[in-house]
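Module 6 notes. Inverse folding takes a fixed backbone as the condition and produces residue identities as the prediction. Think of it as a translation problem where the source language is geometry and the target language is the twenty amino acids. Below is one complete input and output pair. Work through it position by position during the lab.
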């Protein structure tokens, strides 16, 4: 490994954070504590997820609007094609714009019948994410309303995959439709990312492919999500969390260390941007950033 100090001198890693919109007051407090504690890390942007089936439309909007108006952070709002007409989806985008949001994470989303069920286009809705990206790009450029667009990508095949050839052509089509960057599904082995990066570059995908780093200390929850979205959970990870079901503190420490080690290995291979799935937990994202050598802006100035 390059030492952290050497790497820092070369380039400050760039980070972004994903949050989810809170469901109740307690979760709201936790989210805002997380936002405030991560703000000094000066992320490129922070993104807010859009619940399955569009279930968090208002809450996602309210969260990004508050981030835009009350913090120095640049919000990105997730938006899916699920269970809504094209007009509804574009109205949500327009509402984001009015709230000061200029960056959208455009997704097809999962079937309303749940993750793993076959994708169904909503009546009057977008057929796929390419159509959504094209519509976002065409959204009132006459008024200078041009969104930055990020999209998802899958270094390990998505459950809906019909093979690499289709997947890579599909990702290239997202780029051609106007996507600015792709953010990966989470993964735990650096080679999974690097092999995917090679495949993507060979397929003509030139946009940044930012690794999504999972900070989920609940290992049983992690295994469930990984099973649903096609991410592999290596044996060594099972061993690390073994016997810790009732020890949340130790799981937190392990989670931050695993994430930091993965980032270090990715950085050794030239990666300079990381997107963290924070689960609205400030301590894990903060300690991972510190382990990466990233300091809050005030500490750096001092
Ligand atoms: P796509 O990239 O369009 O498709 C997913 C996969 O299916 C690709 O591998 C693609 O090649 C393949 N595929 C698509 N269409 C076809 C076809 N016609 N034939 C064959 N193969 C096909 N979900 C939410 O509900 N809310 C969120 O906020 C959210 N945020 C996310 C953020 C990130 C960074 C990531 C990685 C995922 C997120 N998801 C979210 C999950 C996402 O909605 C699901 O993974 C969904 O199933 C796919 O959406 P997508 O935009 O990636 O789809």
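Target side of the pair, the amino acids:
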């Amino acid at each position: 490994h390059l030492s952290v100090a050497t790497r820092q001198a070369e380039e400050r890693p760039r980070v972004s954070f994903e949050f989810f919109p809170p469901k109740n007051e307690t979760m709201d407090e936790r989210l805002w504590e997380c936002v405030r504690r991560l703000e000094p890390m000066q992320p490129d942007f922070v993104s807010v997820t859009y619940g399955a089936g569009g279930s968090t439309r208002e809450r996602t909007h309210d969260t990004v609007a508050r981030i835009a108006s009350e913090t120095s952070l640049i919000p990105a709002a997730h938006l899916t094609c699920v269970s809504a007409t094209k007009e509804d989806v574009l109205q949500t985008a327009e509402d984001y714009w009015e709230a000061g949001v200029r960056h959208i994470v455009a997704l097809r989303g999962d079937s309303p019948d749940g993750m793993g069920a076959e994708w169904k286009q909503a009546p009057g809705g977008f057929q796929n994410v390419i159509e959504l990206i094209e519509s976002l790009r065409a959204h009132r450029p006459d008024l200078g309303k041009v969104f930055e667009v990020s999209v998802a990508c899958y270094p390990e095949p998505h459950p809906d995959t019909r093979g690499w050839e289709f997947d890579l052509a599909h990702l290239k089509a997202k780029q051609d439709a106007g996507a600015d960057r792709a953010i990966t599904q989470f993964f735990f082995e650096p080679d999974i990312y690097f092999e995917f990066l090679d495949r993507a570059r060979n397929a003509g995908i030139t946009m940044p492919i930012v690794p999504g780093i999972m900070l989920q200390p609940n290992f049983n929850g992690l295994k469930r999500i990984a099973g649903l979205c096609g991410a592999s959970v290596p044996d060594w990870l099972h061993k690390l969390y073994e016997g810790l079901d009732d020890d949340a503190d130790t799981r937190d420490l392990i989670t931050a260390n695993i994430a930091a080690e993965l980032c270090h290995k990715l950085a050794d291979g030239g990666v300079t941007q990381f997107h963290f799935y924070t689960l609205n937990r400030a301590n894990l994202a903060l300690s991972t950033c510190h382990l990466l050598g990233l300091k809050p802006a005030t500490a750096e100035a001092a």
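Reference fact for the lab report: The two ends are 27 Å apart (CA to CA).
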